[in-house]
Amino acid sequence: MSAIESLALRPATRLAQPVVIGHRGAPAYRPEHTAASYELAIDLGAELIEPDVVVSRDGVLVVRHENELSWSTDIAGRPEFAGRRTTKQVDDRECTGWFTEDFTLAELRTLRAIERMPELRPLNAAYDGRFGILTLGEVISLARTRSTEDRPIRVLAELKHADWSTQHGLPMAELVADELRRLDATDAHGPVILQSFEAAVLRDLRARLGEDGPQVVQLVDDKAEGDHMVSRAGLREISTYAQGIGPSRDRILLGKDGLPVGDTSVLVEEAHRAALSVFCWTLRAENAFLPEHLRVGDAPGGLGDALAEARQLLALGVDGLITDSPDYAVRAVNELRLSTLV
Questions:
Q1: Which pLDDT score is estimated for 340?
Q2: 23 an active-site residue?
Q3: pLDDT for 13
Q4: Helix/strand/coil for 203
C-alpha cells in the first residue's frame, strides 16, 4: 500500500511516509496551474498535484489561484474583454479586475497563462502565453494518465471562495459533487482529495458524497479565527468530517509566543491524536519566503536553504509538504526514508 492510499485508513494518524504535494504544480519553474507545471511536479517526484478551483459563468470548474484573472493570465491586454473589468467584494475584500464567473469556459479558453510573480521568478516569464486555462476534469485526467500501479498520482483540489460563489448562484459543493460523479472520482481511495479553508463546503460535500466519499483536508489560516480549529476541541470537531488539516508552516514552526517550537510540535501531536494527518503549506525556496536564518544573500528572488526548512518540518512529524519546489521536498523525504532504514 502506498503512502497516499494509507491516508484513507482511520483511525490511523500517520501516513506510511510523508508525501510531497506540488502546489499548483511546480510554479518555482513553470507558470502555476499549467499543464507544464503539473507535469514537471510529477517528474520531480510529487505524489499529489494541487490545483485551486474556481467557477466559470456557465458552471464549469476551472483551475486558477483566484477567481480574479489579471495576475495569472493575459486578460489585461485583451481589448475584447476591457469592458468586463469591474470591482467586487469577494470574501469581504474589495477586488478590481476580471473574474472567472463573468466568463464562459469558451471565453476563458482564449486566455493564456502568464507568470504571477515575474519579479521573483523572471525565468518563468519566458513561458508566458504558451499555456491555456485548464478545467478540474483535465487536471484529474492528467493525474490518471501519469499514474502507475506502483506510483499513483492524486489531485489535492482546493475549493476557493466557495461560500461567495454559492451566494452568487454558482453552488460550489453541488458543482464539485456532480463533476466528481461524472468522472467516477468519488471513492475515498480515488484520484481526488478535497480541501478548503471553508468548513461549510467540506461538510456539504461530505453529506453529498457520503462517509466513503473523497478524503477531506481542512485548511487552517493564520488569522485569529483559525485558532479554535487547532485547539484540542477544534481538532476533534474537524475529525468528524475530515481526515486531515492543512496549517501553515508558521503555525507548525512557531509557538503561541512566536518563538520556534524546538524539537516537538504540539499542533502536529494533537492533530495525530485526533486521527488527522497534517499537510503543511506552503514551502518556497526563494529568500523572500524564507525565515531570515535560512536566506542566502540579499536578493529576494535568490534561493535560500529550502531543504533545511523541509527537513525541520518532517522532523516535527508532518505528513505532507505543500511546495512550489517539489524537488527540495522530495530530497528531504528521501533522506528521512533512508534514515529509517539504517
A1: 78
A2: yes
A3: 43
A4: helix
